[in-house]
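Exercise 7. Predict the structure of Exocyst complex component from Xiphophorus maculatus.
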Amino acid sequence: MASVETAAEHERILREIESTDTNCIGPTLRSVYDGQEHGLFMEKLDARIRNHDREIEKMCNHHFQGFVDSITELLKVRGEAQKLKSQVIETNVRLQEDGKVLIGSMEELKQCRVQQRNIATTIDKLALCLPVLEMYSRLQEQMRAKRYYPALRTLEQLEHTCLPRAGQYRFCSIMAENIPKLRTLIQDTAMTQLRDFLESIRKHSDKIGETAIKQAQLQRSLDSSVTLQPRALIGRRGRKEAAAVTESSGEGGSPLSEQDSGILDVEDEEEEDVPGAQDLVDFSPVYRCLHIYTVLGLRDVFENYYRKQRRKQARLVLQPHSNMHETLEGYRRYFNQIVGFFVVEDHILHTTQGLVNRAYVEELWELALSKIVAALRTHSSYCDDPDLVLDLKNLIVLFADTLQGYGFPVSQLFDMLLEMREQYGEILLKRWNITFRQILDQDNFSPIPVSTEQEYRQYTSQFPLQDPELEKLSFPKKLPFSEFVPKAYCQLKEFIYACLKYSEDLHLSSTEIDDMIRKSTNLLLTRTLSNCLQYAIKKKNVGLAELVQVIINTTHLEQSCHFLEEFITNITNVPPETANATKLYGTATFKDARHAAEAEIYTSLNAKIDQFLQLADYDWMSAAQSSGGLTTSDYLVDLITFLRSTFSVFTNLPGMPVEHATLPGKVAQTACMSACKHISTSLMQLLLDPEVRQISIGALHQLNVDLKECESFARAGPVAGFQGDTLLLAFSDLRQLLDLFTQWDWSTYLADYGKSTCKYLRVNPHTALALLEKMKETSRKNVVLAQFKKADRDRQKLIDAVIKQLRNLIAQHHA
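Solution. The predicted structure, encoded as tokens:
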């Protein structure tokens, strides 16, 4: 069984050796050597080789004849092949000889084809390179001509279109390397031009603003048919701007012009042909820089830079000079610069898309408006010249109207002008205060003499005098008032005109203007003119005649108040009966002044009386004399003479018209009564003076004589108009007191005291007691000197008894 398996294994190995590549039979042979039947395998191998040799031999024997035949045929063919080879070599030699010319022609043709191909390739490459060179040349020309926006467009086309088509050439590489440098150069140059432009418009904003304000003045002066024309007449957005925008939108073209930035030279033109902002300013640097930065993709950078720089310039423009308030030219320059700034911004707003927007301009304007208002409030407060304030107001109105024409809100400016109106009113009051004082200082306080009809009409044209009686008088004649009245009335009208001038162009209604004028006029009357009249009345060395003339003047001015009302109504067209209309307080003002003058007359008269009374030199210890031996004191004689001459001034006053016809009489009556009362009171004070401790009956008799002189003066009627003995009542207190003492009628006084029918009703017991105490001292002294005179002792006892009774009377009355 084992031998069968061994034989099968050997058979397998032999098949494997027969069918396997010789390089891979190593493992097979190793399995033979690993076995125990190595020799048996060798035997089988030899047997297998022999079998294959026999098969090979059989096969060779089977094909040998055909091999021999093939060799025989091959030998025959070799001979023929040698012949053919000789013929081929010979033919090749002939062919080579004959083809040399053709080969040469073919080489030439080949070279020609190569040259043609190279030429075609070169032409194609040159066709691609020539536009690059031409464009680069154009770029260089544009750069030399400073046409940077077209240069940038050319640069973009060169970089993105021409160079990629041209291929990789050295000059293309050089150009590509130069492109960023050129772009940076264009960017820097454009920015430099923009800076120059910004600096130029900052320096020339004054000229731009002046031109815009002239345009506003021209627009305001046009008639209604012209004002209906489009706003383009003012030059804000005229056809030139539209053309400029159209030109700037052209493909590849430069916006507007390619000139340098700055203010264009403009000849002085007539008012009817005032150039616009676009005529004065070359805005091309802004447009050019905007387009360049837009192409470079840096529009935001440009916008931010432009706005930042303009904000800085706005702050500089809005900073007023420290001495701006000194002259109108300072204000005008300040306003011109501001208007120039915003005219440029408005032009930029409407000729560019997005460089500045409405919100940005409004923000700048709000900032400017707050600073303008603050600056004007500060600087105008230093001004004390009403003409300058009025010119400033007109300039502000023109400034506001100009900017309002460009769409800027200016209501705050008009509100500020209304605030300045109060300041203007105060300045006017100060000026008119000086004017009124000058008129008063120059006035002679005398009625105005007129000798001709022309002079009379001249004064009546200045002041509304209505006195039919005066008109009937023949020339020469006198007007009742002094020069102060027509001059003051004219100044009142001038003040009203000055107030009206300020209210013009403030967009106020007629009612508001009327109210403003009336309130200002009331201030002038109640404060300024009233103070001036008080100044004139209280001034030193003012005589009674001058004070009387002041009364007459104020009376006529009071009558003229309704003419002032009519005057204001005529210029404002607001009837005085309008609801809430302010009334003039002139009547009360002149009444107060007249009352002050009257009081000053009384005060002055009393002061003069005091001067005479200071000359009184009574001998309070004089002995009793008969009444026939006493004469009136010298000082009192002089005083009475003075009073008579003084009251004659009142008597000779010119008549007053209408209801004031009796006014001088009333003043004279009051003055006369006041003077008499003052004399009586002063004489009473002399009696009761604490320094006078002793009074004799003789002194009382002298005083009684003086009192009789005063009563004689009162009865003579120094001033007409007193009824009966009214003026004597001023001396009744002193008269009853002296009668009581000189007649020694104490029994009647003590018996009737407190009764309405008492003869000595006006004698105060305290006064009588004080006077008796002084007489007691005198009596006591006389008793000491003459102890043995019974009459003196009796009188002393009587005085003591009366004093005791008076004290009891006072005590009872007090209880």
